[in-house]
Amino acid sequence: MSKSNQVLEEITSKEYEHGWTVNLEADEAPKGLSEDIVRFISAKKNEPEWLLEWRLKAFRQWQKMVEPKWPNVTYPAINYQDIIYYSAPKQKVKPTSLEEVDPELIKTFEKLGISLTEQKRLTGVAVDAVIDSVSVATTFKEKLSELGIIFCSFSEAVKEHPELVKKYLGSVVPMTDNYFAALNSAVFSDGSFCYIPKGVRCPMELSTYFRINAANTGQFERTLIVADEGSYVSYLEGCTAPMRDENQLHAAVVELYTMKGAEIKYSTVQNWYPGDKQGKGGIYNFVTKRGLCAGDHSKISWTQVETGSAITWKYPSCVLKGDYSVGEFYSVAVTNNYQQADTGTKMIHIGKNTRSRIVSKGISAGKSQNSYRGQVHVMKRAANARNHSQCDSLLMGDQCGAHTFPYIDVENNSARIEHEATTSKIGEDQIFYCLQRGIDEESAVALIVNGYAKEVLNQLPMEFAVEAQKLLALTLEGSVG
Amino acid sequence: MSTSIARDLTSEIIEAQKSLTAEAELRTEALAQLKKIGLPDSKQEEYRFTPVTRHLEKNFNWNKSTPESNLSSIADYLLPGLDANVVVLVNGRFNPLLSKVVSLESEITILRLSDALLKNPIAKAHFNNYLQNETDAFAAWNTAAWQEGVFIHVPESTSVNKPVFILQLHDASAEQVVSQTRLLAVIEKGSTVSVIEKSDSIGNEVVFHNFAEEWVVKDDAHLEYCKIQNDAGKICQVSNSVIHQTTSSKLNTFTLTLNGQLIRNNLRILIDGENCESHFYGLYLLNGNTLADNHTVVDHKKPNSFSNEMYKGIMDGNSKGVFNGKIYVRPHAQKTNAFQSNRNIIISDHATINTKPQLEIWADDVKCSHGCTSGQLDEEALFYLRSRGIAEANAKAMLLYAFAAEVLEPIQNETLKLYLDQLIADRLQKNF
Amino acid sequence: MLSIKNLQAKIGEKQILNGIDLQVNAGEVHAIMGPNGSGKSTLASVLSGREDYEVSGGEVYFLGKDLLELSPEDRAREGIFMAFQYPVEIPGVSTINFMKTALNQIREYRGQQALDAVSFLQLMKEKMKLVEIDQSLLNRSLNEGFSGGEKKRNEIFQMAMLEPKLAILDETDSGLDIDALRIVANGVNKLRTKNNATIVVTHYQRLLDYIVPDYVHVLYKGKIVKSGSKELALELEAKGYDWIKSEATVA
Q1: What is the DSSP letter of C222?
Q2: Is A236 a domain residue?
């Protein structure tokens, strides 16, 4: 197996391709966290009094809370006073059109393959670009507004649509839900807001692209998507960060709210900097994502491809409150080198005839640890709830670990819950079959891994699927167990 | 978390220690460990659904001593037709009148544990080597305060003809009973033995039974071990069983839980040799307010072994089923095959199941899987039976029986199998 | 084309091939027959480069190149195709995607341009017709849930796509009913030219009714103990392998 090890060696030495930085002049808060910093952030953004109060309340709660210790990950204690909580690329005024956006910024995103120039953009995707937690540009806004769709930065939403923000902010993830959600609620700097009005099917994919640029900063963005009755939207989220030796904290909150008959499809390709081969640096990705199926017959579907971050701690969840509501979670999580991922989902069945489906594919290589943690909870009232979960793990090499922690709690006797999990490796006979057809070992592994993850990749919108496949191949090319 | 009963307990345990001299040093050490870790509250992951400590706090007076029982016959509690070595403990005390050893001395040694620790070097060598006193409060408590126990030793290359039947009775007809008992069994190389443990109780007062077991199954040995928990009344039982297996040994265990108020079983199988085989099966048929919690661990430390777990549950009334099955495959335990299945049927509106099948794998060339379901009876099958003229109640019982009886398959002792089969059939017929 | 001299191979400590000599020229079809455990499949595996077997002696030249020095994928790229006895299942990878990857890597090795999607599909359609395979099968995950016959037909389809110089059919008839056998054999026959060669490894004669060999070799205890024309196969069919065994033992 010396050859396999050699290949493994090669792929583990692969460099992170988005690891560059640009010199963007930034407007930063001083290091550390206090009520003053919370006030500073709120003031920077000219926020209304109610939002400042909301932040302060969250901050005071956060101070009383302790960091969760239950995830299957280890990392040195985070010094919350050593982080910059606000960093914005310096722009004289908020640009009203793309011509006013700093060309350096546009270039930054172009380097990432994200064009902010609408003409160059493939039609069908509108982008909100967020750098160091501040939205720098949103495309296709006018076109969307003709349909009554609101798609803008969070700060803008606070100004333009305060009634909506006030109503739904924290309605799915309460400010004190958990340690990192409380932290985010206190210091979030920006993010995306989206509202799809009654009966409107959003004609294009909406997308937010997150980029951490500045050093020593944490990224705390917040996304809120509200789908009114009978509406539909597909939302994409992508992210990268520069290579830095120190760990950077990313604690985001995403809230999805669907009313009667509405559907939100939320896809993530997470490619934050994972740290180097020795496990130095990388993003701590501690994210709270939750969707509330508030109305009957509503649906929320999460798809995630997780390849980046030094540590991932996230459980995109669905609260199935409306009768006949549907929750889905499709996930591919890849860990390599010293990466650690503890990720999964919660499906909380509250309404009658609610259904959920979980497909999780974990891939561990190098010295990484990959955990699936999930809960299916059928509450007393949730008659005829259905769940099917499939959690597979693939191990490459004998120095990594795969862990499965599914919690199944059933309080209603008409529920039908099925959970299956398997662990496997890439078969040597599968590799040989490919070799015999003239395919080299690296491509063979990429082929097999993509096949393994296909059920999840198929859920991604076309354009994203290609990117995700490339990313998988890049992270794991040629690793053989 | 340390809780308030810890203080009361300490005096209780120290009181107990005065009369119990065996392994006094270990007892003191274990007491210190218990004080350090405290009894688990519901915030602890392993006891999230099983409030043993709260139950003990609410229902027991730790200054009371446990009464003697004047029970004279155990006929009602035996397995009909089972010709076995019988060991009887009543309220945690050894009852020599009701016990009898029928196997030859050359085949098997069965002793009171307190005696064995004084004169048997094998017992001394293995005692307390396998329990996790540092992390498990109930194990530590048992080590500090065990009253009596059983020692079983099977010499090399011996097939013990007659099974060992250990009956633990709790007579709570007059007063509350607290009993701490213990078992140590060493099955030497190439030997075979079958052990049946049964617990029953009498009376309506509360019982707390803390039972700790250490099993050593050496190379090429084969242990069949069956636990029948059929306590009536208000028993709270915590049972810690650790089974240590080495090369090419074979294990079959079966745990049947029928009654009791709060039952917690920790079954821990350490596979510490290659080519081992472990089958562990369980069935919990619950009703009333019974809470039965099975926590199992199979720890594959060496390569090339096989483990297969199947636990099934049927919950009726206000009962609660809890299951947690951990499969660990340690680094370098390559070519491990480990399978686990937990299937549940909830009958009533008020019964619940909390299940957590858990895989933790650190080796790549392994085959592991778990499956877990919760549901109702298959409507199609029910309809099919009814369309052939079978009454709904009978049809349900038939289907439930079919669901449950699968776990009996691996049991080899026919008398035992027949008894269990009848027990299950009666139970299902009566209740549904 | 293929020249095997005194080839010896073992798996672990167990010697399986005890000095094989075989000469295969372009345009020829060779059948390797023999009782179970004689080393037939080992020979096929060694030629395709499976790492489980250790070559302990002898040499193999393919088109002038030392075959034993080449990696399995390079052997494939040089033009060796193995139709597996038990084709492996690869979940989630469609045959189409698989073939496209293989074909283009082979083309790259030979310094040819990669095929674009259109020409690839065209080529595929053509070959599909040739081996009578249905498109729906090729859209599915590679061999996953395929019947025995479907798997074998898929092997022949891949052979048609890759146009090897030397095809090794390892027990291709096992698990096939007579109709499937005919379809598979037809495919193989259509692919025969004077420039390529085929080695058919089989236990039974019946496949050779459809794929008529120029030479038949009988393998026993890791050695070729008898070679002859196609009549030898008929003789084996009639008499079984026992007379070969006794003859070999006497010798």
Answers
A1: T
A2: yes
Q: Say if residue B111 is in the same domain as residue B236.
A: yes
Report the gap between the CA of A454 and the closest CA in chain C (Å).
Answer: 6
Interface of C with A (CB under 8 A): 48-51, 71-73, 75-77, 81-82, 84, 87-88, 90-93, 97-99, 101-103, 105-106, 109, 141-142, 158, 162
For chain B, say whether A34 makes contact (Cβ under 8 Å): no
State the alpha helices, DSSP H only, in A23-102: 35-44, 49-64
| Count of the separate structural domains present in chain B | 2
Which has the higher per-residue pLDDT, A11 or A267?
A267
The tokens of A34 are what?
């206090």
CB–CB contact C49 A454 (8 Å): no
- Pull the structure tokens for residue C111: 């310094």
Domain that holds residue A178: 2-476
Residues of A in contact with B332 (CB under 8 A): 398
The domain spans of chain C are 2-250
Percent of chain A at pLDDT exceeding 90: 45
Q: What is the largest CA-CA distance in chain C?
A: 61
Rounded CA-CA distance B358/A374 in Å is: 11
**What pLDDT band is residue A98 in, cutting at 50, 70 and 90?**
low
Residue contact C105–A436, C-beta within 8 A: no
- All residues of chain A having their beta carbon less than 8 Å from the beta carbon of residue B372 are 406, 408, 417-420
Kindly report the CATH number that applies to the domain delimited by C2-250.
Answer: 3.40.50.300
Most A CBs within 10 Å, among C90, C140, C159, to test the A interface: C90
pLDDT tens for each residue of B186-201: 999 999 999 999 999 9
Q: What are all long-range contacts of A64-71, with beta carbons under 8 Å and residues at least 24 apart?
A: A65/A176, A65/A178, A65/A179, A65/A182, A66/A179, A67/A179, A68/A178, A68/A179, A70/B45, A71/A313, A71/A342, A71/A371, A71/A373
Question: Bigger pLDDT: A478 or A438?
Answer: A438
Q: Check if A429 contacts C (Cβ < 8 Å).
A: yes
Please report the beta strands in B12-54, taking only residues with DSSP state E, as ranges in sequence order. none
- Inter-chain touch A404–B358, beta carbons under 8 Å: yes
The DSSP secondary-structure symbol of C107 reads H
Q: Per-residue pLDDT for A19 more than 90?
A: no
Interchain contact, B365 vs A398, CB within 8 Å: yes
Strands (DSSP E) contained in A52-132 are 87-89, 125-131
ipTM above 0.90, yes or no: no
Q: Are B212 and B184 in contact (CB under 8 A)?
A: no
Tens of pLDDT, residues A431-469: 999 999 999 888 888 888 888 988 888 888 776 777 777
Residue B199, domain extent:
3-272
Contact assessment for residue A32 and residue A56, using Cβ atoms and an 8 Å cutoff: no
